[in-house]
Amino acid sequence: MFVWSFGLMKNCFQGKGGLEWLRDMTSLLGEHNINWSFGPYRDDDSGVNDNTEALEVLSPRGKN
Known about the structure:
Layout: E1 2-6, H1 18-31, E2 35-38, H2 52-58
Parallel strand pairs: 1-2
């Protein structure tokens, strides 16, 4: 199985639980050996390329 793309809006990372949700999603998918893709990496509204904490969660080192 492969989750083609998931993501959330940039404003979700501003004290609204976005980082926790991202950790939960990547952890859950990893626990079930489901491959995934974070789709809106550089998107203006939902990209994370300028969010160092989110990038750490998405990096191979950040996975549980």
